[in-house]
């Protein structure tokens, strides 16, 4: 099997050359240690996931494990699918660390590290669980918006909170908090989506006071507060005035981040470039996507695309094109991806004709075998695991600096 050194992979990351670096171990093993821009792909999922996650057959793919001998099975399946350049990382995971390069923990690590960098650079306002609880108890003028997926929100949520997935926040703000004196508090389960969500509102110039709930539902639980379960509060569709304001604000944010807008003819030219990978994502909610979407676009709700970029787009150095019938969701999502050093475009598309319909689940669900138990999932996590998770996140900015491959910037 052809191999490639850790130094050569790192060089590709630094020069923005296309490369897909896959850890072929279980998700739990991957979560214990991996390079920053590695993505996880177990051998039994290669045939199901690779065609969607690595759409160009000429993409250089690099595989590694930690001595478990999973690489050969994954390589064989990739070659059978028609991929032409499938390499093994010399020395596997140890080869990366032996070269003096950083290893990261958990899943979606570079998105989470980026979120920490945003907070450090922009000093994103935040409230502690005790501060928020006290304000709720005295009936303060505030709203709590949960930026996670709706199914996560239903599992557990901050009392009184409303589900507004991350890409919808700028759209919803003017309607859920029409009085500019009303404070908007954004939460997730941990830190990243709270930070990105709150900073999205700040970047978009929302007139209200804005804060992230520090450490999300983990922080709420560690403070001894009670969570609700089974809630179904969701923000309504944006009013015409709110939509107009969100469009202006989100487009300005995207412009400041260097996002470019393209027409359908421009997209055709990008897709005709056989030397580059072009991802196409519809950033709306799954229900909207299922009712009708542009041909060739996969569903990746904007907040989740920023949170789980390594899953949706494992080819580092590729291009990303986003579509959204309203506009602000794509513009805000693109603004974050651009700051994460992606070449990203927003498509000016016609959603009134030629739409495809179907199930938004482009990838079949994974089994729970080998799955990493996230410390922020569910309501029965050990306190020690939650505290350790937070301590890990606090150290990510320093680890990013040591790693040196990210190219992130913050507007």
Q: What report would you give on this structure?
A:
The protein has 411 residues and is an alpha/beta fold. It folds into 3 domains: 1-107, Rhodanese-like domain (Oxidized Rhodanese, domain 1, 3-Layer(aba) Sandwich); 114-239, 3-Layer(aba) Sandwich (Oxidized Rhodanese, domain 1); 247-347, Oxidized Rhodanese, domain 1, CATH 3.40.250.10. Helix content is 41%, strand content 14%. The chain has helices at residues 6-14, 27-32, 46-53, 71-80, 92-98, 109-122, 129-137, 150-155, 169-176, 192-203, 216-222, 240-256, 264-271, 286-291, 302-307, 309-312, 328-339, 383-394, 396-403, and strands at residues 3-4, 19-23, 39-40, 61-64, 86-89, 126-127, 142-146, 162-163, 183-187, 210-213, 260-262, 278-282, 298-299, 315-316, 319-323, 343-347. The strands form 3 sheets. Strands 1, 2, 3, 4, 5 and 14 form a 6-stranded mixed β-sheet that branches. Strands 6-10-9-7-8 form a 5-stranded parallel β-sheet.
Features:
411 residues; globular; Oxidized Rhodanese, domain 1; 14% strand; 6-stranded mixed beta sheet; alpha/beta; single chain
Helix-strand blueprint:
Blueprint: E1 3-4, H1 6-14, E2 19-23, H2 27-32, E3 39-40, H3 46-53, E4 61-64, H4 71-80, E5 86-89, H5 92-98, H6 109-122, E6 126-127, H7 129-137, E7 142-146, H8 150-155, E8 162-163, H9 169-176, E9 183-187, H10 192-203, E10 210-213, H11 216-222, H12 240-256, E11 260-262, H13 264-271, E12 278-282, H14 286-291, E13 298-299, H15 302-307, H16 309-312, E14 315-316, E15 319-323, H17 328-339, E16 343-347, H18 383-394, H19 396-403
Parallel strand pairs: 1-5, 2-3, 2-4, 4-5, 6-10, 7-8, 7-9, 9-10, 11-16, 12-13, 12-15, 15-16
Antiparallel strand pairs: 2-14
């Amino acid at each position: 099997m052809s191999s490639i050194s850790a130094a050569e992979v790192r060089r590709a990351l630094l020069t923005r050359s296309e490369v897909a670096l896959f850890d072929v171990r279980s998700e739990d093993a991957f979560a214990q240690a991996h390079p920053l821009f590695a993505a996880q792909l177990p051998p039994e999922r290669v045939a199901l996931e690779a065609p969607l996650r690595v759409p160009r057959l000429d993409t250089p793919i690099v595989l590694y494990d930690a001595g478990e001998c999973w690489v050969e099975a994954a390589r064989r399946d990739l070659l059978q699918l028609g991929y032409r350049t499938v390499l093994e990382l010399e020395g596997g995971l140890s080869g990366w660390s032996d070269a003096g390069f950083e290893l990261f923990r958990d899943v979606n690590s570079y998105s989470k590290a980026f979120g920490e960098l945003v907070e450090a650079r922009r000093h994103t306002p935040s409230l502690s669980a005790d501060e928020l609880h006290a304000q709720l108890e005295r009936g303060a003028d505030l709203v709590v918006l949960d930026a996670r997926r709706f199914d996560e929100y239903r599992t557990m949520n901050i009392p009184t909170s409303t589900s507004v997935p991350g890409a919808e926040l700028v759209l919803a703000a003017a309607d859920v908090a029409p009085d500019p004196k009303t404070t908007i508090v954004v939460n997730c389960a941990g830190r990243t989506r709270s930070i990105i969500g709150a900073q999205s509102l700040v970047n978009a110039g929302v007139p209200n006071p804005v804060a992230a709930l520090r450490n999300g539902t983990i922080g709420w639980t560690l403070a001894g507060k009670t969570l609700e379960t089974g809630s179904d509060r969701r923000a309504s569709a944006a009013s015409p005035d709110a939509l107009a304001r969100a469009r202006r604000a989100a487009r300005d944010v995207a412009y400041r981040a260097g996002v470019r807008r393209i027409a359908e003819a421009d997209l055709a030219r990008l897709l005709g470039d056989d030397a580059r990978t072009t991802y196409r994502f519809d950033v709306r909610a799954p229900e909207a996507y299922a009712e009708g979407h542009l041909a060739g676009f996969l569903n990746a709700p904007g907040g989740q695309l920023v949170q789980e970029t390594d899953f949706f787009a494992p080819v580092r150095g590729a291009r990303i094109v986003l579509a959204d019938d309203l506009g602000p969701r794509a513009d805000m999502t693109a603004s974050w991806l651009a700051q994460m050093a992606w070449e990203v475009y927003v498509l000016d598309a016609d959603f009134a004709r030629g739409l495809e319909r179907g199930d938004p689940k482009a990838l079949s669900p994974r089994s729970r075998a080998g799955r990493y138990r996230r410390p922020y999932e569910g309501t029965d996590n050990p306190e020690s695991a939650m505290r350790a998770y937070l301590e890990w996140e606090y150290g990510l900015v320093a680890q990013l600096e040591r790693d040196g491959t990210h190219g992130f910037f913050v507007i």
